[in-house]
Design a protein that fits this description.
By secondary structure, this protein is of the alpha/beta class. It contains seven helices and ten strands. It is 35% helix and 20% strand. It has an eight-stranded mixed β-sheet with strand order 1-4-6-5-7-8-9-10, with helices on both faces. It has a two-stranded antiparallel sheet with strand order 2-3.
Length: 234
């Protein structure tokens, strides 16, 4: 983690979320009053990949960022269960100490469910984030499982991440980015998430992109930077 911190101009920031559970974290402190990005990655994304993406997104700016590994990943304690991950996400924002006007919540794949839940809870508390970015979002993990298996077995999943049920609580502008060729979380999910959000959402489809190659296009980097700049506090 120390080598990662040096490579990405960050510092170690372990976060104790329970007496016996500490999350591995990295944090880059930006300028006073600048936007701060918090990122929730996909199931297979390491904190190395997350830190690299955030460093790329904020390069040349005074923006700050924070990234913590899910429970059970990259040295973080505990087990990665939905309710615990949701609590941890709120704890991360509280730990950052950033008001809603400066906070941008980004989620990719599995992490989009975490991002939506967090945005809805912050809005419920009267301080919605300045913006939310959803990369390859799903309506529910249950539906993704049903589509992948070809039979309706999603009901057996202990953690369902029912994003569609929480979208009404999101009060922030939302940028949705999805690859048209995605064969893990189909483009229909991204389109339905954007449609449910209505005027709050901007949908960006990348015709040539799938699920795991989304960042090979320069579209996500360009569009997220513009989105943050456009909704940053003045």
């Amino acid at each position: 983690v120390d080598q990662l911190a040096a490579a990405y101009d960050a510092r170690r920031d372990p976060l104790v979320v329970e007496p016996d559970v500490t999350l591995t974290g990295l944090r880059h402190d930006g300028g006073a009053g600048a936007p701060v990005l918090v990122f929730f990655g996909g199931n297979a994304m390491s904190i190395v990949e997350t830190a690299s993406l955030l460093a790329d997104l904020t390069r040349g700016s005074d923006w700050g960022w924070g990234a913590w590994a899910y429970r059970g990943y990259d040295g973080s304690g505990g087990s990665p269960r939905q309710d615990a991950i949701f609590r941890d996400a709120l704890a991360q924002v509280q730990h950052l100490g950033v008001g809603g006007r400066r906070l941008f919540v980004i989620g990719q794949s599995l992490g989009t469910g975490v991002a939506v839940h967090l945005a809805a809870r912050l809005a419920e508390g009267g301080e919605p984030p300045a913006g939310v970015v959803l990369l390859s979002p799903y309506t529910s993990i249950r539906r993704v499982a049903d589509e992948a298996l070809g039979v309706p077995l999603g009901w057996v999943l202990a953690d369902r991440y029912e994003t569609e049920r929480e979208l009404a609580g999101v009060r922030s502008p939302v940028l949705v980015i999805h690859g048209v060729q995605d064969d893990i979380i189909g483009i229909a999910h991204g389109r339905e998430v954007a449609a449910a959000l209505g005027e709050r959402a901007t949908l960006v489809e990348i015709p040539e992109a799938g699920h795991n190659d989304l960042w090979l296009s320069d579209v996500p980097l360009t569009r997220i930077r513009a989105f943050v700049a456009g909704h940053a506090p003045r």
